[in-house]
Amino acid sequence: MEAARCWFNKLKSKDKLRPSKKKEAAGNAKEGSKPPTGEEAPSNVTKQRVAAAKQYIEDHYKKQMKSLQERKERRNILEKKLADAEVSEEEQNNLLKYLEKKETEYMRLQRHKMGADDFEPLTMIGKGAFGEVRICREKATSHVYAMKKLKKSEMLRRGQVHKPAM
To answer: Where is this region: Disordered (predicted)?
Structure first.
């Protein structure tokens, strides 16, 4: 969702630079010509935004449905294995509840956005033109990782960033 907002805001700022069609129509209107109707055809930019929003929403719900289907499949597989293993009813319920708990925990982790604040820097192991590499410990799990932190403003200033085509 955040990526869509960022993309939408970039387009919004580009629109501010262009004169609006209503202003152009008002400036080009002659006395005696018909006044513009209340409904105008959507501009190309608006059509692009609509298409992008539609695509984003469709992708989002496809991912959700796929995820739901995968969870159901995992549950069915576990139920079949438990039935074949002749496990007691109480033990089956406990294992199914455990699976549900793990699935919920996993979905919560998927929604969490990871950032530099989630890590505790330990030592710097390298420094380059655009940033630095540090050994860091993740606060939640205490796992140790190498983190490369880049200065995007410096990369943009030197023209080293390739922007994706829209």
So the answer is: 1-50
